[in-house]
Amino acid sequence: MLRTIDLRGTRPSTAGLLALVPRAATDVSAALDAARSIIDEVREHGETALLDQAERFDGVRPSAVRVPADELAAALEGLAPEIRAAALQTIERVRAASEAQVPAPQTTVLAAGAVVEQRWQPVARVGLYVPGGKAVYPSSVIMNVVPAQVAGVRSIALASPAQSEFGGRIHPTIAGIAALLGITEVYAMGGAGAIGAFAYGVEGIGLEPVQRVTGPGNVFVAAAKRVVQSVTGIDAEAGPTDILVIADDSADPDFVAADLVSQAEHDELAAAVLVTDSPELAARVAERLEARVTATKHSARVREAIDGVQSAVVLVDDLEQAADFANAFGPEHLEIQVRDVDATLARIENAGAIFVGSFSPVSLGDYAAGSNHVLPTGGQARHASGLSAATFLRPQQVVRYDEQALREVAPVIAALSTEEDLPAHGEAVTARFPR
Ligand SMILES: NC(=O)c1ccc[n+]([C@@H]2O[C@H](COP(=O)([O-])OP(=O)(O)OC[C@H]3O[C@@H](n4cnc5c(N)ncnc54)[C@H](O)[C@@H]3O)[C@@H](O)[C@H]2O)c1
Ligand SMILES: N[C@H](CO)Cc1c[nH]c[nH+]1
Ligand SMILES: [Zn+2]
């Protein structure tokens, strides 16, 4: 069960807190070498490597990596009505929230005839990863595709691992929801190989390199995204899930336990952390946790995650210290279940997504809140953010000066170019004003 980190009576510095933050023993950096060699195989041997890797890691050899159009059409046709309806509702909510993430273009007039515009340009082509190992993630199709479409990305490719249960095809619900969203370029490939295929392209199957790879995945997927960052953009390292709950004695211990188990269910490497100023609450959560871990379907996986070094109950003196710890941890998901939620919320700087109050569990955000569930893990939320329409957009500056506006600023350019000993820069301006 959860180990205890007792911070009561201490006031560690940020560096001190960072050293105490629980993290999995197998992290992204530990998976880098494996990811790199898997990517190299794909660069060298293309589709054959992807088929070999499916056989090796997914236990099945697909007949081809590219998913044929008729398979997508059949999957769309075969979507169960309740799944189709749930997907459509999620799509509608995620689309509405994603539209609000598109920044407005700006025009700044610095003087008469001197204008700097800022426009938001979508990346041209993206590769979206949808996990499918220990669990399959049709919801991640929506979380990837919708913001890319809202941003105006022209070319979208999607990948998910081959499933042995379906003879090497991708999971039919993933195929069906991709088709529902109008995606036609889909590949049965998983893990680091899929990320490498997106980054470098695969000749022979028409897979052209992408400019950005996004989507969640296990530690190998996250490591592969780190490896390919020099050739393609990524969203964030959205690897093995974590949840951190800040709770005081007003929280319902069963709600807290249920939420910790819900995210531990993803992966043995998932982190479940409770931070509380109430030892009584900690004890009651531990009781409920034991009952829930024993009863839940994926009990062995959940127990391994909860028992892992990455999971803990952290005892603090007060909720200010709880917020300091959360900021050092940089959780993917932060839940705040305390009496005065806004006071704690105001102290939070770092989190992928924040779930406030007793009736906003992480599972809500996983499927139906309208927020995006692809979020930075492993402390990356200290500097990165979750997937959004903005992930697929780049600000570009457009400079528009007329003759008079350039003439007015010419002495500034002359002074600075002379100071930098780059006189040709100044001459490019004076050439325009010979007299
Ligand atoms: N942070 C987020 O936004 C977010 C969202 C959803 C899920 N997740 C995480 O995504 C992950 C999903 O993992 P999954 O395993 O179910 O699916 P996955 O698709 O991420 O991983 C399966 C693939 O991993 C590769 N693989 C498996 N074993 C390997 C090995 N020993 N060496 C090299 N490669 C190997 C294979 O290529 C396989 O196809 C979980 O960790 C979950 O927590 C994160
Ligand atoms: N909790 C995951 C994000 O870390 C997302 C997810 C998808 N399905 C279930 N959960
Ligand atoms: Zn989840």
TrEMBL record:
A Pfam cross-reference name: Histidinol_dh
GO molecular function, one term: NAD binding
Gene encoding the protein: hisD
Residues reported in the UniProt entry to bind Zn(2+): Q263, H266, D366, H425
Cofactor note: Binds 1 zinc ion per subunit.
Positions annotated as active site in the UniProt record: E332 (proton acceptor), H333 (proton acceptor)
Catalysis: reaction(s): L-histidinol + 2 NAD(+) + H2O = L-histidine + 2 NADH + 3 H(+)
The protein's name: Histidinol dehydrogenase
The protein's required cofactors: Zn(2+)
E.C. number: 1.1.1.23
Family as reported in the entry's similarity comment: Belongs to the histidinol dehydrogenase family.
GO BP term, pick one: L-histidine biosynthetic process
Keywords on record: Amino-acid biosynthesis, Histidine biosynthesis, Metal-binding, NAD, Oxidoreductase, Zinc
